[in-house]
Amino acid sequence: ATTLENVKEKGHLQCGVTSGLPGFSQPDEKGNWTGIDVDTCRAVAAAIFGDANAVEFTPLTAKERFTALQSGEIDMLSRNTTWTLTRDASLGLNFAGVNYYDGQGFLINKGIGVDDATQLDGATICIQAGTTTELNLSDYFRAKGMEFKPIVFDTSEQTVQGFAAGRCDVLTSDRSQLAALRSKLSDPSSAKILPNTISKEPLGPVVRQGDDQWFNIVKWVLFAQINAEELGVTSANADDMLKSDNPNIQRLLGTDGDMGAKLGLPDDFGYQAVKLVGNYGEMYDRNVGPDTPLGLDRGINALWTEGGIMYAPPVR
Amino acid sequence: MQTPPKDQPGKKPGIIRVEGMHKWYGDFHVLKDLNLTVDQGERIVICGPSGSGKSTFIRCINRLEEHQQGKIIVDGIELTDDVRHIDTVRREVGMVFQHFNLFPHLTVLENCCLSPIWVRKTPRKEAEASAMEYLERVKIPDQANKFPGQLSGGQQQRVAIARALCMKPKIMLFDEPTSALDPEMIKEVLDVMIELAGSGMTMLCVTHEMGFAKTVADRVIFMDGGEIVEQAPPHEFFTNPQEARTQKFLQQILAH
Amino acid sequence: MQTPPKDQPGKKPGIIRVEGMHKWYGDFHVLKDLNLTVDQGERIVICGPSGSGKSTFIRCINRLEEHQQGKIIVDGIELTDDVRHIDTVRREVGMVFQHFNLFPHLTVLENCCLSPIWVRKTPRKEAEASAMEYLERVKIPDQANKFPGQLSGGQQQRVAIARALCMKPKIMLFDEPTSALDPEMIKEVLDVMIELAGSGMTMLCVTHEMGFAKTVADRVIFMDGGEIVEQAPPHEFFTNPQEARTQKFLQQILAH
Amino acid sequence: MMTESTMKAPKKALRPVKWMRENLFSGWFNTVLTLGVAYLLVTSVGPLLNWFFLDANFVGSDPSACTGAGACWLFISQRLNFFIYGFYPDELQWRVDVMFLLLAVSFVPQFIERFPGRKWLGLFGIFGLPIVGYFLIPGGSFGLEEVQSSKWGGLMLTLILAYIGIIASLPIGILLALGRRSDMPIIRGICVVFIEVWRAVPLITVLFMASVMLPLFLPEGVNFEKLARALIGITLWQSAYMAEVIRGGLQAIPRGQYEAADALGLGYWRKMGLVILPQALKMVIPGIVNTFISLFKDTTLVLIIGLFDILGTVQSTVTDPAWQNVAIEGYVFVAFCFWVFCFGISRYSQNLERKLDTGHKT
Amino acid sequence: MKKQTIDTRPAGPKPWYDPRVRSLFFQAVAIALVFWGGWILVDNTLSNMESRGISTGFGFLGETAGFGIIMNLVPYDATMSYGRTFWVGLTNTLLVSAMGVVAATILGFIIGVARLSSNWLVAKMALVYIEVIRNIPLLLQIFFWYFAVLSNLPSPRQSVDVGGALFLNNRGLYLPDPVTQEGFGIVWGGILLAIAAVVGIRIWAKKRQLATGQIFPTFKVGVAILVLVPIISYLVAGRPLEWDLPALRGFNFGGGITIIPELAALWIALSLYTASFIAEIVRSGILSVSKGQTEASKALGLPNGLTLRLVVIPQAMRVIIPPLTSQYLNLVKNSSLATAIGYPDLVAVFMGTTLNQTGQAVEVVAITMAVYLTISLLISLFMNIYNRAVAIKER
Ligand SMILES: Nc1ncnc2c1ncn2[C@@H]1O[C@H](COP(=O)(O)OP(=O)(O)OP(=O)(O)O)[C@@H](O)[C@H]1O
Ligand SMILES: Nc1ncnc2c1ncn2[C@@H]1O[C@H](COP(=O)(O)OP(=O)(O)OP(=O)(O)O)[C@@H](O)[C@H]1O
Ligand SMILES: NC(=O)CC[C@H](N)C(=O)O
Ligand SMILES: [Mg+2]
Ligand SMILES: [Mg+2]
């Protein structure tokens, strides 16, 4: 059976997320998940079922995530996962797009008196197991002829704990996380983020290889959200927009054409995703934008029309 | 080597028939060409030196051991590999072991009721009533609710006898039932057995209690080296043994 | 606390002297005012009903149990808390237990050599030679290299005797050395003990083997309820006991 | 000769001095030991006491109330709800409370001698409780609102895992043990391999397989709850240990018992069920209970596969930046919870052992 | 009464009443079920892997790993292969297991004996230790030693400094590293000589004791030789040893030998936890030696020390060894909890990062399990050999 059939039969989408990373996927005290990665899953659920809550989250460590996806334990992985060639090609996975363009950075303890990554020779570095950051770090230090001691933890939670306990001088991860992780310190002012960015980290949802229909669904739900932002459709005005005579909007919201049917979805999948979850900009602002504790500017994640690189193929 | 013909009514001839029976343990030939016919109501005592195969023989009769050649027919049923036959035969044959082998986790009464309830499917009430009867017969009704561990050896062996009787078996096998007991307890148990013998039950008893043999046995069988060397009524057996081996054995035993 | 004057070469009077000795287990008064003097070479048999304190008494003599009141003087040394005295006394006193208490992880020979080598500091060669002598004396030299678990009960008890003898003790204590044995093995062990008795060793023996008592004992001591009720030479003891309790006990035993 | 009544044991004076001389200061070695240990105790007990109680903060409503140099127990009481129920919805927590209550009602009386109907409560605890729990906790039937297993957590999850694991591992262990003692070489072989393989691998590898790899081995579409899979992993793993414990008991039953049962005409299953197993199980109660206790402790490993048991919930909250350095308090709290249960169970087993002893040890 | 004629009875039972046939049948069914189940699993796995485009095979072991590992006993850097990460993980597992086994054994024996001490206070303390430690989950104890204790250690700049050679901080314990200089061969020679001498003395002393019964203080003399000879040869050779002292370089200590906190926490937790079980084993082992044995030994005049050494301990060991073995096995398996605190053991490195980077879960997990199975089987094998060697001989 195809993944879509399985999901429909189960009645919910099984989505792999982190075990707790503010802004991306984080449960609150009642176990309700929020975050941009979580919203990406919800949008897919909304598109399939017309219900943004028809989704269950499986918290995974970085180490476990690909195995869980490969085995079929989860239907899609939306866990700030970097798109790389190896992952795409030899792990039997397909990346369905990018929901956040990121890069790797360093969070340091101010006490060590360093203000550039090139001064980190000999540093002890806390890092999460099974990530691209682990690999980039090695590359970077080798290229610069420096040494480092990696302290490898299972979860980002633990890396902060190790950093806070003084086990390491530096914590390295995707830049987007550093701010969030810093906010978990009891004295955030004791740490600072170095200006260096040592890698490209395009993060996005992942599905299993071999089911193109499912691949397309996840991909186009995300594109639909990005297109919605570009077209000015938001969750607030989605109902009004149903009456829009812009053909792009009509196709997006399913009032014209059978775009959904081509994917195996209801034709209003775009409407449901935007109505129930929001367009990409809403998703961003709600979870990681300047008004959130993370306070991240759109930067390169702005639409291409606004000087960023967020660019989705047209719904046509 | 044939039983004297019996003609009284009620006595079924040949309730146990062993014909040309052999048994090996691996390469060791324990029982050699045994032939024996026991009539209903007969009381047989088996004796012989240690290792002569007495226990093995008696255990073959309710198939705790398997024989490899010859026939054993108990109450008309031949003992073969057929599980139904084995079960049927075991129901008719009670066994009393040298070391009692009571179930220590059950009370005396429960020990006695186990087989009636689970094998014979007697209602519990009935089974208990009948068990109490047998416990009275072995003179320990007052111990019914104790655990075996709380009884003396003699009492335990009497419970073992009652337990076997509760199955209402046609045949009772005793394997040295008194040899694990202190002298004073031996008497207790022998008394019960003598009484039982009086009631006309078919009994096969391995024992060296020659007094018992003289009192109750219809026949004494002497085994050595896995063979039946001699069988005779007790009077004859003790006063006028035919075989040299028997004579030697009797000398030892009686001198003791 | 002085050795009694020696006036007879060889025969030391009062090699064991027990004076007004009492012992309690918690509040339970096990031994009551015992008085006994044993001369060198004397052979004493202690008997009495179960629980009368025979074992406890004999164990006090090599201080496996502590007494709380009175004196015990062995070979001129009073048994007190002083460890040196205890060690010295134990070197002179051999003990044979009811349950043999052989060391299962050592061969028969090693069992016998343990004390000579480690306590008496005898060279191993010598110790082994002497152990073999004693093993011959108890008639099991051929078992020397077996482990205790591989021997029969009678053989084990004979090893236990040999082991005690290897210390070349002045005094031997036996605590019901035959009661854990089968009848045929009892004879083996008694034979060895009788032979030993003949060699003039001081012996204290708790036993109910009245035959043994009659044959070898110089004195029979009867204990009951923690007291020495009667002591007399065996002839007198068996034919003409003074106390009512002794008479009753003898009746029981002999009727058996 | 003295009469019995006049002689009393010489005063084994119960005076403390005497007791101390015998138990604490007998010989120079013991004296040194005593003094050393006493010194350690005195120097450590004071600060510990201070930290635990005297300088500790118990009341207040937010982290700022934790001022003292001692423990911040406030943290525990503030988060207690989370530690006990995990993400279970507030308004439905009564369902869990009912289960806690039933659990207590069926097992606490087991510690009280002569409590009427004790046995029945115990039986209910073993057979009835799981059934009640099966309907009550997840809901979804009888008009109860459904609560996904992903919302279960805390102490409640720990108890569910341990409880089901314990109840399931015993019968599986028994079957494996019987299989390993079977006359049939192939059955025996299968059981041996099964037992040895499970016993040889670390539990976390088993949990890893159960939690993320299992669907890979199963036909497409066959799938069940992550919680259930963790449970199956733990149960099978422990049942291998259980099997070995029970085998020990089976081996200790003398052959005569088997023969007597045969002679009474009981078949294989009755022989085992009525005669052999009751004795064997009784004999290995300590081993069984130890296996239970280790299973109970091992449930914490589900944390590694992302389930929030009590340790998981605490672990995830001790890093809360609002509370400074509450790691020790958190861990001490969890340690205390586990200790109470484990110690309780082991005490109970010792009790049981003493009571079940029908005096057949000869 | 049943009426039966024996002669017409068939010689053999119908097949389905013959226990032999039945047993064969059950076994055939069982094995068929197992094979069927196994085949289904394998088939599913293969087809699932195929349909999902997961690569298979062990070729990945040769590929470049590209990630760093903090602690390696075999040479390793990020340019080496995944195969090498396996060895790094395995050696780290073996290291912490070996350290744990040694420490837990020593501690366990001490506490087990303390539990039987005549000293009331000592016995009670041992009891408290056992009852507390073994009733608390190991994972919790590991967290405690790691997170709770680590956060209370000073930073490298404020290290606890013992004589400028030994430093303790939240990066670990730093010890001086001996670096041998030219001429150290002489010291090696001295050490070998000392060992040879001690062995020689032992043999000689034993012979002499056998021959004359005199007992030579082998232990004391041996220790003296082992200490003195190497020291003298060291001095004679002109002190050919230099210590590489740890020193603060940049923001970390460099030089010396480091025991990282992950290792320390894991080691401490494993040792303390296992020791509480070993203590109980030791206690019951000693208690299992019957009172009759001690009495017999005393009756032979052996003093307490010798009784313990010659009679009690040899017998107790037989009881102790089998459960002790399973504790060792448990310790090795429990060392896999390393992954919770980032100690790079086999599970953390190989079944963690390597698995994740290569995505070949089935192969990696299979290898990992095979390793643990092998360790288990090897230990059991040795224990069985030992057991057979010391088993009490019986009839
Ligand atoms: N399971 C067995 N395997 C091999 N040989 C056995 C087995 N059981 C018994 N034997 C041997 O078979 C012979 C007969 O044993 P059996 O127990 O029948 O003798 P017995 O006449 O009852 O002797 P006893 O008077 O000592 O009980 C003995 O030599 C014994 O060693
Ligand atoms: N350790 C002990 N604590 C308390 N009471 C004991 C202890 N050992 C023995 N007794 C009691 O002391 C009494 C004398 O015991 P002892 O073993 O000396 O008797 P005995 O004459 O050797 O009897 P038996 O013939 O049965 O061996 C008995 O009543 C026994 O119950
Ligand atoms: N730290 C993380 O959880 C993810 C890191 C990185 N983006 C990766 O995919 O490997
Ligand atoms: Mg026999
Ligand atoms: Mg006695």
Descriptive account of the structure:
The complex is a heteropentamer, with one copy of chain A (316 residues), two copies of chain B (256 residues), one copy of chain D (362 residues) and one copy of chain E (395 residues). Chain B is built from nine helices and ten strands. With 256 residues, chain B is an alpha/beta fold. Chain B has a domain at 14-100 and 169-253: P-loop containing nucleotide triphosphate hydrolases (Rossmann fold). In chain B, the strands form two sheets. Chain B has a six-stranded mixed sheet with strand order 6-7-8-3-9-10, with helices on both faces. Chain B has a four-stranded antiparallel sheet with strand order 2-1-4-5, with helices on one face. In chain B, α3 (108-118) crosses α4, α3 runs parallel beside α5 and α4 (124-137) crosses α5 (153-166). The longest helix of chain B has 16 residues, at 183-198. Chain B is globular and about 50 Å long. Among the domains of chain D are: 88-147; 158-308, MetI-like fold. Chain E has 395 residues and is of the alpha+beta class. Chain E folds into two domains: 80-165 and 259-388, MetI-like (MetI-like fold); 176-243. In chain E, strands 1-2-3-8 form a four-stranded antiparallel sheet. Chain E has a two-stranded antiparallel ribbon with strand order 4-5. Chain E is globular, with a radius of gyration of 29 Å. Mean pLDDT of chain E is 84; it is low at 1-10. Chains in contact: A-D, A-E, B-D, B-E, C-D, C-E, D-E. At the C-E interface, α2, β6, α3 and α4 of C face α5, α8 and α9 of E. Residues 18, 62, 80-82, 128, 131-133, 156, 173-174, 201, 203 of chain A line the site of glutamine. One adenosine-5'-triphosphate binds at residues 25, 28, 30, 48, 50-56 of chain B.
Top CATH class of the largest domain in chain E = Mainly Alpha
Instruction: Say which CATH homologous superfamily of the domain at 158-308 in chain D is assigned.
Output: MetI-like
- Tell me roughly what share of residues is in helical segments of chain D: 55-70%
Biggest interface, chains and residues, is:
D-E, 55 and 52 residues
Main location (chain D): membrane
Subcellular location (chain D): Cell inner membrane; Cell membrane
Membrane topology (chain D): Multi-pass membrane protein
InterPro entries (chain D): AA_ABC_transptr_permease_3TM, ArtM/GltK/GlnP/TcyL/YhdX-like, MetI-like, MetI-like_sf
